[in-house]
Structure formats: structure tokens, C-alpha cells
Design goal:
Radius of gyration of chain A: 26 Å
Order of helices and strands of chain A: HHHEEEEEEEEEEH
Number of strands of chain B: 2
CATH class of the largest domain in chain B: Mainly Alpha
Helix content of chain A: 25-40%
Strand order of the largest sheet of chain B: 1-2
CATH topology of the largest domain in chain A: Immunoglobulin-like
Oligomer: heterodimer
Strand order of the largest sheet of chain A: 3-2-1-5-8
Helix content of chain B: 55-70%
CATH superfamily of the largest domain in chain A: Cupredoxins -  blue copper proteins
CATH architecture of the largest domain in chain A: Sandwich
């Protein structure tokens, strides 16, 4: 076979596999539970990146497999053709990978801006982490709890602080993850879209009890949330927390 | 014999040093346990190095006495004397073997720690204890990072760079031996940290957790700083060797690609290591001297530590990966029997990765609470670095395409590398992209990703290189069938272990946990079983290496018909490497050119090295 025929055969295999692969991943849900606007955006980014990586994966895999099958030496005497490079191929490789990367970056940057959204919220919660438990305070009502309750379809603002070491506030279904840093309050927004109860946990190694530092997040409609808030005693009995009330953030 | 420098004297020196340091702090300064241990370790290290004889020539010179030429010659080591491997020996080939064997011993130890982790994680629930799990997990990380940092550049690099550039030794043989002998005590310290209470922060040692943790944590920090100093010393040595001691005719653009990779690696190590050594020292000061660099309660900043740590530790990822990439690109042309495709672009790739690796560190901190505007530029630089990194695939694929592929054991590892490093690279883009990183950060997806990059990049490269250069280093051939068994067993088990971890991470399993929801039980049991197979396959490797070194068949000087300089001398090379220093006329990748084996060498009379 001529070099051109080799290239065409391998190229055809690559094209078929790439198209099949992209069709397979297009439109699937990758993040297992999606219950917020943020998680939806993240899933979209995930699908796009997966689709974009299929042709790259196939390029190398087909290249390796084709070589292993067709260019295997039958003896160990001779050499291959003395090709040191090819300006066109090299330029195309660098150019295409540069374009691809800039495209993915632009998509990622748009997604990030989208996730951050406006700096305004309908509902405020103060989150406090310490070894090894989560505490939540609802500044509008002064209620404190160990479960996080938030309204559906409302933009929720979470002010996160840590009492001792670094923790990380993570609720997979809501697509939010933010470290809780001692001496440096952080914050995050989320808009839940589905009513339900979701697990949350500490994602940053924080010592002996890290594994068990979990929480429950309840997303309910505003009426149910209000009912729940009025039922709660003001402040958790027996555990006011070392810092007391962090107070609402401006 | 205690009167001669050697291991026995070194151990006594270390004990005396520890007693003096610890005693001083106890009696004069009335310090606490951490401070006693701190000064004790520093003086123990000094005592160890004095005892092994690391400073004796410099001390003799400083005292104004004549250095005994016979003794200096003896320190270089005699061929065939196994005891030289346990002494302060200045021959770069001995030091290379010392590094390589040390790295493999450490690899086996840290692998055993991984087996313990997979035992705990095989089923949901706690089988041992969370405290032990955290310590074993942290120790596994700390040791494997050391393996990845020193194995190729310290082991294969020390052995091969002088040979590949046509020099008789490294530029500073005594400093070279010193950089090796700083390691044993530091490694021992990491290994015994469980006896000191262990440490539970992982290798990243983020404060404030690392300020709470006990003496085992301090041991790790001090050991890491020691490894850092050794690494800087070694980097200077590599750079001077490469830039001042190349054979006549070997211009920079005629250097073997492996040497180029190590040159960039050494530059990174030289520039970046001092930053992490400083960050760890500041952490030690916080613990021992009452400073507050990272104490939030007293105005310190814990995010500052992360910036300093990753400013080194991301370039460190390339300190680990570039030597592997270099080894792979060195091996590809030999078994494809074709010139290295796009050699100048590959050189440019190493240099630009080196430069760009300093601009991407903060992608480890997308959810850390660092300055918000910083996410976007770091996302850009992180994704841009995949352009030069992708060139390793261009070079490798371009070389094997239309080649005459010989599937020797090293070439199998090259193919394995290209698969594993590709998966590592592609999944890296998901972590560079902030929207996906928010959900993936701190999950098993990250664990799978960095094992694909570091095992894929470094360990596959290390295995490829070890098999490829085994005949040169030992003068014997390894067992081909055991080598193939090792490759297939390891590669299948490796993929079976880490592919499911991507899924676990997406499903929400956090990294660094001793327990997980019951739903992940079956997958974790499968992973633990696959991981055990990695260990078994590595046992085959160890058996093959030890047995073949002792009684493998004699290897010819150039069994692979390779064109780089190290193959143009005996196997193993004589003490002075070459009978006469060769003259170089072209790159060592002239395969396929008629009459070009080894075409890059001109037959020139003996010449002195460049001044």
C-alpha cells in the first residue's frame, strides 16, 4: 500500500469511530442527579467536553492500533523511511489544537460567568463548618439548624465560614462546591430547580472525622419552607456555636 | 570499621547528632517535643553526612591539606565491587543505580501502603481505623511523589546524561553523591512517621490542619524540605553538565531528546523547589517558632500557603512527567527504526511546557476561595499548556507511522504510555474547565486523573526506560517473557483499577475518605481486586530485574542498534565511560539513511573535553 492509501484507510476508520462516539455521548446526562440551574450548566459543559474529546481519543487510538497491525516489522534488520518531519502536518497539528483549546476555553468562560450569575439573592443562609459538622443559620428569621433547608426556584446565597480548618461545602445535586476557609469567609449562589432531599458533604480533607462530615439538604417550596422555619426553635439547644451568630452579609 | 567513612560511621554520626541537637534543646532551651525533634533531625542529618564521608574532601581542602589522590580515586569506585553502592561513591553510574534502586524500593513500599488502602476501601464500613487510614494514605502520597520526582532524573538521568552527552562524569561528582546521600535519612523519616503519631493531611499539608497534626506531620515537612535541597543541588549539577561538558560537535540541537527533557526538568527543579521549601519552612516556623504566616486566628492567611505550595507543585507535576516523556521519545525511534518526528518541535515543546508550567498553578484552587477574577486567566493558561503537551503525541505517532515496529518490551511500554498519558491529558481538560471542575474537584475523578498522568507519564516511562537501558546498566539481558507478562498484567490491572474511579468521581465519591456510601461497594471491591493485580505484576518485574542482573545472558554493547552515544561504549560502560571521547556530527536519529549506523558519530581521534 502507498503512504496515501494507509492515511486514507486509517482516516476513514477514525472518522467513523469519531462520528459514532460523538453521537453516543451527545445529549446524555453525566452528572447523576441534577437539581439546580448550576448543575444543569455543569452537565452541559461535561457533555460538550466529552464529545470534543472523542475525536482526540480516536486519533491516538486508531493511530496506535493501525501502526501495531500494519507496520509491524517482520525482521530486525532494515530501517523505516528517513522522514524527519512534515511542515504541513506539524503546522496543522499545532494550529488545530490551538483553535480547539481556545474554543473550549471560551465555552468554559461563558459557563463560569453563567454559573456565577448576578450578585443578588432571594434567600440568605449562613453556613458554618467545624470539625466535623455543618451548621446553618437563616439570618432573616434567626433560626439555626443542622440540616440545610432552601426554597425551590429561588436564588439562594450561602455565606460560608470555617471555625477551625479548611472544609469544603459540597452538594453534588446542586452543582455547588466551595471551600470553607478559616479567617476568610467565602460565598456561593445556587438556584435549586427540583424539590427533594439531597446529600451534601465536606469535600476537603479535614482530619479524623472527614469521612463522616455529611449533611442533608432539603429543597422545598416556599410555603413548606416557611412552615418549617416557624416550627424551629431560635438557636440550636445546647450548641450555640463558638462564633455565635455570624450575622447577615451586606 | 569505625575509623573509615561509611554506613556504620554514618549511623553513629546520625545518633550522636540527634543526641546533641535534642539534648541542647532539652537542657539549654527547655523546648517542646517538636523543637527537640527539629534540631535533633537537622544535626542527625549533618552527622550522617559527616559519617558517610560527604564532606571529607572539602574539609581537607579547607584545612589547607593536600587531598590524597589515591583516596579520591578510590571514592570514585572500582568496577565489580558491590560495596561501592553502599558508600559515598562519586561515579555517576553508581549514583544512578543508587537512585534507581532506592526509588524502586520506595515504590514497592508505597505500593504496599496502597494495598492497605484498597483493603480498607474494598467494602463500605471501617475495617481498621480512620486515623490509620489517613496516615497510610498520606504516607503513600508522600512516598510516591518522591518516587515520581527522583526515579527517572535521579536514576536513569544520573546514569545516562554524562554518557549521552559524551562526558566522563557529571560536572560535580562529589555534590552529586551528596545529593543522593541526603535522601536515605529523609526517606526513613517519612517511613517511620506512623511511630511519631502519623500525619493526616495528605502530601499537600494544607494548614491549619497541618498545624494541628502531631510529630509525624513535622517529620514529613522536614523530610520534604531535605528532598527539596537535594533536588536543587542535583539540578545545578545536571545543568552545568549539559551546558559545559558535551562532546565535540554536540550542539544543543543535536542533543538526544531525553537530555533535553532532563535539562528542562532540572531548570524547573532549580527555580520552583525553593518556593515549596520556603512554604514548608514557614509552616515549620508556625509550628516551632511561634510565627503566624498561616494562622488565621492571628492574621495569617491559609490561602497564601496554597498559592506557594502549588506554585512549586504544579511545575513539580512536570518535573515528574517530562523525564518520562523524554524517555519515551528517546525509545520510539529506536524500535520504529525511523528518525524522531519533528525533533525541533519536540525540543520547543519541552521548553514551552517548562515556561508555561509556572502559569497554571491556581487551577488546583478553583473552589478554594481565591480571588474570583483569577479563575478565567488560569483556566486559559491551563488549557493552553495542552498544546505543547500534545506534541508528544505528534512526535510519537509521526515516528511510528510507516515505521518498522519492533515490539520489544520497552516498545510495549511506549504504547502503554501513549494510551495512559492520553487518558490523563483528556481528563485533565475536564479539571481545567471551571464549570466541570466545580463538580469534579476533590473527587475520585481527580484521583483517577492524576494516576493516569503520573503513572502514565512517569511510571510507564520509568518501566520503558528501565527495560531499554537494562542491558547498558547491567551488561545483561532481562527475561523477555517475564517482561511481556509484566507489561500486559500491569497495564490491564492499572486500567481496571483507575477507569472505574472516573465513574466513582462523577457519581460523587470524595477522595481521601476511609468510607463511602454502600452503593459504591461493588465497584470498590472490583478496584481493590484489580489493584492487587498491579502489585503482583510489579513483583514479576522485581523478580525479573534481580534474577536477570545476577545471571541473565550477556548483552552486546548495542543490542538495539541505537544511535545515541551511550550505546557506542561497552555494557556496562568502563569507569571513564569512553575509551576516547567521540565527535558528534548530527542528531542521533539517522535511521533509514543509507550507511548511517551509527551515522551520527564521526571517527575522530581522542580529544579533551570542552573546557
Amino acid at each position: 500500500m502507498t503512504p496515501r492509501r494507509h492515511l486514507l484507510t486509517a482516516g476513514a476508520v477514525w472518522l467513523v469511530l469519531s462520528v459514532v462516539g460523538v453521537l453516543l455521548v451527545a445529549g446524555i446526562q453525566i452528572i447523576p442527579v441534577i437539581a439546580s440551574r448550576e448543575a444543569e450548566i455543569e452537565n452541559g459543559a461535561f457533555v460538550l467536553l466529552t464529545a470534543a474529546s472523542v475525536p482526540i481519543l480516536m486519533l491516538v487510538v486508531v493511530g496506535l492500533a493501525y501502526t501495531a497491525i500494519r507496520f509491524r516489522a517482520t525482521d530486525d534488520i532494515g530501517d523505516g523511511p528517513p522522514i524527519h518531519g512534515h511542515v504541513g502536518v506539524q503546522a496543522a497539528w499545532v494550529g488545530i489544537s490551538l483553535l480547539l483549546v481556545i474554543g473550549l476555553f471560551a465555552y468554559g468562560a461563558i459557563g463560569l460567568v453563567d454559573i456565577r450569575g448576578a450578585q443578588s439573592a432571594d434567600f440568605e443562609v449562613n453556613v458554618s463548618a467545624e470539625q466535623w459538622e455543618w451548621k446553618f443559620e437563616y439570618p432573616a428569621t434567626g433560626v439555626k439548624s443542622k440540616e440545610l433547608h432552601i426554597p425551590v426556584d429561588r436564588r439562594v446565597h450561602l455565606n460560608i465560614e470555617s471555625i477551625d480548618v479548611i472544609h469544603s461545602f459540597w452538594v453534588p445535586a446542586l452543582g455547588v462546591k466551595q471551600d470553607a476557609v478559616p479567617g476568610r469567609p467565602t460565598h456561593i449562589y445556587t438556584t435549586a430547580t427540583d424539590i427533594g432531599t439531597y446529600p451534601g458533604m465536606c469535600a476537603e480533607l479535614c482530619g479524623l472525622g472527614h469521612t463522616g462530615m455529611t449533611m442533608t439538604v432539603v429543597v422545598s417550596d416556599q410555603a413548606a419552607l416557611d412552615a418549617w422555619l416557624t416550627q424551629q426553635p431560635k438557636g440550636l439547644p445546647g450548641s450555640p456555636g463558638p462564633h455565635g451568630s455570624p450575622g447577615p452579609t451586606p | 570499621m569505625v575509623t573509615a567513612p561509611g554506613l556504620r560511621r554514618a549511623v553513629i554520626g546520625a545518633a550522636v547528632g540527634f543526641a546533641v541537637g535534642g539534648g541542647l534543646v532539652t537542657t539549654v532551651l527547655q523546648g517542646d517535643l517538636g523543637q527537640i525533634f527539629g534540631l535533633g533531625y537537622i544535626l542527625a542529618l549533618l552527622g550522617f553526612l559527616l559519617g558517610i564521608g560527604a564532606f571529607r574532601f572539602w574539609l581537607t581542602w579547607a584545612a589547607g591539606r593536600e587531598i590524597d589522590a589515591a583516596e579520591e580515586h578510590a571514592a570514585h569506585g572500582r568496577a565489580g565491587d558491590w560495596r561501592r553502592y553502599f558508600r559515598f561513591t562519586t561515579d555517576h553510574k553508581v549514583i544512578g543505580v543508587q537512585y534507581l534502586v532506592t526509588a524502586f524500593v520506595l515504590f514497592f513500599t508505597a505500593g504496599t501502603a496502597a494495598m492497605f488502602m484498597r483493603f480498607e476501601l474494598a467494602q463500605p464500613g471501617i475495617a481498621t481505623s480512620k486515623d490509620i487510614y489517613n496516615t497510610v494514605m498520606s504516607t503513600h502520597g508522600a512516598m510516591m511523589i518522591t518516587v515520581a520526582l527522583v526515579s527517572i532524573i535521579g536514576g536513569l538521568g544520573n546514569y545516562l546524561v554524562p554518557l549521552m552527552v559524551g562526558a566522563r562524569d557529571m560536572a560535580f561528582p562529589k555534590a552529586n553523591a551528596l545529593s543522593y546521600w541526603m535522601l536515605p535519612l529523609a526517606i526513613l523519616l517519612v517511613a517511620i512517621n506512623p511511630l511519631l503519631g502519623g500525619f493526616d493531611t495528605g502530601w499537600t499539608a494544607y494548614p491549619p490542619l497541618s498545624q494541628q497534626a502531631n510529630l509525624g506531620q513535622q517529620a514529613y515537612l522536614m523530610a520534604f524540605v531535605t528532598v527539596g535541597i537535594s533536588s536543587i543541588l542535583s539540578a545545578i549539577n545536571f545543568l552545568v553538565t549539559v551546558f559545559r561538558m558535551r562532546a565535540p560537535g554536540m550542539s544543543l540541537m543535536r542533543m538526544p531528546i531525553f537530555v533535553w527533557a532532563l535539562t528542562v526538568t532540572a531548570t524547573l527543579a532549580l527555580v520552583a523547589t525553593s518556593v515549596v521549601a520556603m512554604a514548608f519552612t514557614m509552616l515549620l516556623f508556625d509550628r516551632l517558632l511561634g510565627t503566624s504566616f498561616f494562622r488565621a486566628s492571628r492574621g495569617g492567611d491559609v490561602i497564601l500557603f496554597q498559592h506557594l505550595f502549588w506554585f512549586y507543585s504544579h511545575p513539580a507535576v512536570y518535573i515528574m512527567a517530562l523525564p518520562g516523556l523524554g524517555a519515551i521519545l528517546e525509545i520510539v525511534p529506536v524500535f520504529a527504526r525511523k528518525p524522531l518526528f519533528a525533533y525541533p518541535l519536540a525540543v520547543l515543546m519541552f521548553v514551552s511546557i517548562g515556561v508555561m508550567s509556572f502559569m497554571v498553578w491556581a487551577h488546583h484552587m478553583f473552589v478554594s476561595g481565591m480571588a474570583e477574577f483569577f479563575h478565567i486567566p488560569i483556566m486559559l493558561t491551563t488549557e493552553l499548556i495542552s498544546v505543547p503537551t500534545g506534541i508528544v503525541f505528534l512526535s510519537a505517532l509521526g515516528t511510528i507511522w510507516m515505521g518498522r515496529i519492533q515490539f520489544t518490551v520497552p516498545m510495549l511500554w511506549v504504547f502503554g504510555f501513549l494510551w495512559a498519558f492520553l487518558i490523563g491529558g483528556i481528563t485533565g481538560v475536564f479539571l481545567a474547565d471551571v464549570p466541570t471542575d466545580i463538580t469534579l474537584s476533590d473527587t475520585y475523578f481527580v484521583v483517577a486523573h492524576f494516576h493516569y498522568t503520573i503513572v502514565g507519564g512517569t511510571i510507564f516511562g520509568l518501566f520503558a526506560g528501565t527495560y531499554y537501558w537494562f542491558p547498558k546498566i547491567t551488561g545483561r539481558m532481562y527475561d523477555e517473557r517475564l517482561g511481556r507478562l509484566h507489561f500486559w498484567w500491569f497495564t490491564l490491572a492499572f486500567n481496571a483499577t483507575f477507569i472505574p474511579m472516573f465513574w466513582l468521581g462523577i457519581e460523587g465519591m470524595r477522595r481521601r475518605v476511609a468510607d463511602y456510601p454502600a452503593g459504591f461497594g461493588t465497584v470498590n471491591l472490583f478496584i481493590s481486586f484489580a489493584a492487587l493485580n498491579i502489585a503482583l505484576s510489579v513483583a514479576v518485574f522485581a523478580f525479573n530485574m534481580v534474577r536477570s542482573w545476577r545471571r541473565g545472558p550477556q548483552a552486546a554493547p548495542n543490542p538495539w542498534r541505537a544511535q545515541t552515544l551511550e550505546w557506542q561504549t561497552a555494557s556496562p560502560p568502563p569507569i571513564a565511560n569512553f575509551d576516547q571521547i567521540p565527535t558528534v556530527t548530527d542528531t542521533p536519529y539517522q535511521y533509514g539513511h543509507p550507511g548511517a549506523a551509527p551515522g551520527s558519530l564521526g571517527a575522530a581521534p581522542a580529544r579533551r573535553l570542552r573546557p
